[in-house]
Backbone:
DNA sequence: GCAATGAGCGTC
DNA sequence: ACGCTCATTGCT
C-alpha cells in the first residue's frame, strides 16, 4: 500500500492524518455493477477512527462521486497498490452489518449468480436517524426452558429440541399433523433456543401466520425478546424492531420473507414454515428463497434448522434423502386420530345433487351432504376454490393428462396470437419452444388435445342459492363479487364457531374456532392442470392447508375433494401422507430432469444480449441450453445442469455478467437461478 | 515540437 | 462524475 497525498484538489486544505490504529477501511460500495462486486479500501482519518467501526454506514468518494457504502472491516494495511482515498464520512457509528450477515450476503450472491450489494439492500433496511438515536433497551435474561409436550407426539421431536437446547446443529424436516397447534410448537422450539442463550428466527409466508406465531412466542419468552418483523410496518417501526434485533435485545424473531436476513445475534435455531408457499421466493434480484438462505445460514453459523409445514416440498425431500436433515413425522395412529374423513369424487363421475340449486353450484351430492351435516351441527364449512381468471394450458382430450414437450418435458401451450386463415397455431413448448404438430398422449394414445380453462370464482353466489338461509362469508379473491381479478378482497384471519359457508381462495383460509365441520375442495382437476412445474405440489399443499383446519373424523369432520382419486396428490390427501407425496413428486421430477433434481438458470433479455452473455460464459460441460421462448419484451433461455454443477453454473454466469458490465454492454440480461419456468 | 483541447475509461 | 490517459488539433 502506498499512502500519498491527494494532489491539487485538496492540497490547500491540508491532508487529514490517517488513524494510528488500523488505518485502512474495507468498504462495500453501493454500486450495482458485476465487475465491481468486491470491496474497496479507503483510509480512515484520525478524526473518524472511533466511529468507523466494522458494520457501520459510510459515504465515500468512488470514481469521483459520493456513494453509500458499508464498512466491512478495519485493517492494518491494504493490498491495493494504488493511492487510497480517505473515507468521506461515517454516516452513523451504528454497526448495522454484522460479520455473519456480511458473510451470508456474499454466499447468497454467489449461489444466485448475483451481486452482494443487491443482497445487502435486502438485508439492511434504510436508516431512520430519529429511531437510531432512541436509547436502546436492555436485553432480557434468557427465559426458562419451555415445556415441549407438543413435540413428544412426534418420533424424534423431543430429540430435535434437546439438540437445540444443547446448541447442536441439528437439521430437521417436520410435517405437522392435521389440526396441530403448530404456532405453539414453533414457539416452543424458538423458546428452547432462547433458553440456551441463543437467538431464534422463524420465517412464515404471510403476516397472519406471523401474528399467530409471534403471539405464541411472546407467551413463552416475553414481550421484549419476541420481535415480529413484517413488511407492512412503517419505516420507523420496522427500523426500531430491526435495530432491537441487531442490538441483541430481540432474541426471537418472527417474520415474513425479508426477515430471513434478520441479524439475530448468535442464532441457535432457524425455521422456515410452509416452504412451498411462493411468498418465500424474493422477487428482487438476486431472487433468493427463504429456505435456501436459511440453509446457507445454518451451514455458516452452526445453527439448527427446521424446514416445516403441513406439506413437504421436493426440496425438503431432497434434504431428507441426502441425509442432511432427518424427518419429524407423526406416526399413523396420531394422524388417523387427528385427520378428518376425506372423500374424493372424480369430477365426471359424481352423482349430481337432486335439487337444481346445488347442481348449478357444480357440487356433487356427497359434498352437499357433508356441508349440510356440518351446518346442521352449527359448524362453519370451508369452501376452497381456485383463483379466478383464465389459464391457458393443454391436456389430453381423452384422459386429461397434461400435455408435455417430447424433447424437454416442458408444458405445452397454445401460443398467444390470432388464428391464421381459420387454422389455430400449433401448440408449442413453453420452455424450449419446440412446436408439437402431432401430439400423442403418452398415457392413453389419444391424439386429441383440449384446452384447460380455470373459470372465474363464481362459487360464492351459487352457494348462497344452494344453501338458502346460510350466511356466506368470503376471504381472498373469491370475495366481493368483483369478478375474476378482484385479487385484493379482504382476507379473514378467523371465523367464529357458527353455522356459515366460508368461501376462500387458496392461501386465504381463515382459522375456525373449534375447527370447520367440513371442507369442500372444488375444481381440483383444474388446479392440477395448471401449467407450472409446481402445480401438483401446490395443489396438494393447498388442500392440506384447508383440510388441516377441519375437525377430526371422530368429531364429525369431513373433507370432500373434487378430483380423481387415482391421482397421487388425491391419494396422499386421503392417506394424509405428505412424505410419500414428496417422494413421488421428487422421483417424477428426477425422471423428467426438473428442479430440484437439476439446477436451472433462466436468462431473460434481447436475443443478442443473451447470445453475448452465453458467449462470454464458461459453462460447465454438462450444461444444456433450452429455448429460446418468447418472454416479455425479449426472450428467455434456460440453462440446465446436474445439481453437482450448480455452483459452477452460478459462478460462470456471474463472471459472464462481469465481462458484460465491464464492457458497458447495452442491453442487460436478467439471470435468475431456480426460477420456476 | 509541443501546448491545448477532447474523448474514453476506470473506478481504492 | 471526476481525474486520469492518450489521441487529435493547431500554432510557432
Residues:
Amino acid at each position: 500500500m502506498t499512502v500519498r497525498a491527494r494532489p491539487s484538489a485538496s492540497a490547500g486544505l491540508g491532508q487529514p492524518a490517517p488513524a494510528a490504529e488500523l488505518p485502512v477501511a474495507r468498504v462495500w460500495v453501493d454500486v450495482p455493477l458485476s465487475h465491481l462486486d468486491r470491496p474497496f479500501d479507503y483510509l480512515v482519518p484520525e478524526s473518524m477512527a472511533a466511529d468507523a467501526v466494522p458494520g457501520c454506514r459510510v459515504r465515500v468518494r468512488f470514481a469521483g462521486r459520493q456513494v453509500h457504502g458499508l464498512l466491512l472491516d478495519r485493517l492494518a494495511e491494504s493490498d491495493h497498490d494504488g493511492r487510497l482515498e480517505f473515507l468521506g464520512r461515517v454516516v452513523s457509528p451504528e454497526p448495522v452489518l454484522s460479520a455473519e450477515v456480511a458473510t451470508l450476503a456474499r454466499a447468497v450472491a454467489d449461489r444466485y449468480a448475483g451481486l452482494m450489494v443487491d443482497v445487502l439492500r435486502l438485508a439492511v433496511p434504510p436508516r431512520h436517524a430519529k429511531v437510531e438515536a432512541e436509547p436502546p433497551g436492555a436485553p432480557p435474561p434468557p427465559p426458562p426452558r419451555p415445556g415441549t409436550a407438543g413435540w413428544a407426539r412426534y418420533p424424534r421431536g423431543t430429540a430435535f429440541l434437546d439438540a437445540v437446547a444443547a446448541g447442536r446443529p441439528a437439521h430437521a424436516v417436520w410435517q405437522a399433523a392435521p389440526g396441530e397447534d403448530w404456532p405453539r410448537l414453533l414457539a416452543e422450539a424458538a423458546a428452547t433456543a432462547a433458553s440456551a442463550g441463543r437467538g431464534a428466527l422463524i420465517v412464515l409466508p404471510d403476516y397472519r401466520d406471523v401474528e399467530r406465531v409471534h403471539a405464541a412466542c411472546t407467551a413463552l419468552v416475553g414481550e421484549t425478546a419476541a420481535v415480529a418483523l413484517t413488511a407492512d410496518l412503517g419505516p420507523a417501526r420496522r427500523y426500531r424492531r430491526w435495530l432491537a434485533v441487531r442490538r441483541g435485545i430481540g432474541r426471537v424473531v418472527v417474520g415474513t420473507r425479508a426477515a430471513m436476513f434478520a441479524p439475530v445475534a448468535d442464532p441457535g435455531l432457524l425455521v422456515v414454515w410452509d416452504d412451498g408457499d411462493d411468498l418465500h421466493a424474493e422477487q428482487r434480484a438476486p431472487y433468493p428463497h427463504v429456505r435456501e438462505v436459511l440453509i446457507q445460514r445454518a451451514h455458516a453459523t452452526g445453527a439448527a434448522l427446521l424446514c416445516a409445514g403441513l406439506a413437504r416440498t421436493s426440496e425438503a425431500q431432497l434434504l431428507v434423502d441426502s441425509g442432511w436433515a432427518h424427518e419429524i413425522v407423526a406416526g399413523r395412529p396420531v394422524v388417523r386420530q387427528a385427520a378428518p374423513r376425506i372423500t374424493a369424487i372424480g369430477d365426471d363421475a359424481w352423482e349430481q345433487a337432486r335439487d337444481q340449486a346445488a347442481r348449478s353450484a357444480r357440487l356433487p351430492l356427497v359434498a352437499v351432504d357433508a356441508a349440510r351435516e356440518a351446518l346442521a351441527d352449527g359448524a362453519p364449512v370451508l369452501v376452497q376454490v381456485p383463483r379466478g381468471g383464465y389459464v391457458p394450458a393443454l391436456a389430453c382430450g381423452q384422459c386429461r393428462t397434461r400435455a408435455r414437450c417430447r424433447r424437454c418435458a416442458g408444458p405445452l401451450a397454445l401460443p398467444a396470437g390470432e388464428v391464421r386463415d381459420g387454422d389455430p397455431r400449433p401448440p408449442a413448448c413453453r420452455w424450449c419452444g419446440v412446436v408439437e404438430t402431432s401430439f400423442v398422449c403418452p398415457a392413453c394414445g389419444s391424439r386429441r388435445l383440449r384446452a384447460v380453462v380455470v373459470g372465474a370464482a363464481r362459487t360464492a353466489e351459487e352457494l348462497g342459492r344452494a344453501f338458502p338461509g346460510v350466511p356466506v362469508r368470503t376471504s381472498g379473491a373469491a370475495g366481493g363479487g368483483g369478478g375474476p381479478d378482484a385479487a385484493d378482497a379482504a382476507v379473514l384471519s378467523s371465523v367464529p364457531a357458527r353455522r356459515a359457508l366460508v368461501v376462500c381462495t387458496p392461501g386465504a383460509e381463515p382459522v375456525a374456532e373449534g375447527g370447520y365441520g367440513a371442507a369442500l375442495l372444488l375444481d381440483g382437476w383444474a388446479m392440477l392442470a395448471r401449467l407450472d412445474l409446481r402445480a401438483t405440489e401446490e395443489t396438494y399443499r393447498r388442500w392440506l392447508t384447508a383440510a388441516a383446519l377441519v375437525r377430526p373424523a371422530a368429531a364429525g369432520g369431513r373433507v370432500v375433494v373434487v378430483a380423481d382419486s387415482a391421482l397421487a396428490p388425491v391419494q396422499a390427501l386421503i392417506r394424509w401422507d405428505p412424505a410419500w407425496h414428496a417422494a413421488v413428486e421428487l422421483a417424477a421430477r428426477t425422471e423428467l430432469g426438473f428442479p430440484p433434481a437439476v439446477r436451472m438458470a433462466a436468462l431473460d433479455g434481447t436475443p443478442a444480449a443473451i447470445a453475448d452473455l452465453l458467449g462470454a460464459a464458461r459453462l460447465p460441460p454438462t450444461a444444456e441450453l433450452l429455448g429460446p421462448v418468447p418472454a416479455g419484451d425479449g426472450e428467455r433461455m434456460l440453462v440446465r445442469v446436474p445439481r453437482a454443477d450448480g455452483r459452477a453454473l452460478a459462478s460462470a454466469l456471474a463472471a459472464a455478467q462481469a465481462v458484460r458490465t465491464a464492457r458497458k454492454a447495452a442491453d442487460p440480461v436478467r439471470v435468475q437461478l431456480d426460477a420456476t419456468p
About this structure: The first strand of chain A starts at residue 24 and ends at 29. The two ends of chain A are 48 Å apart (CA to CA).
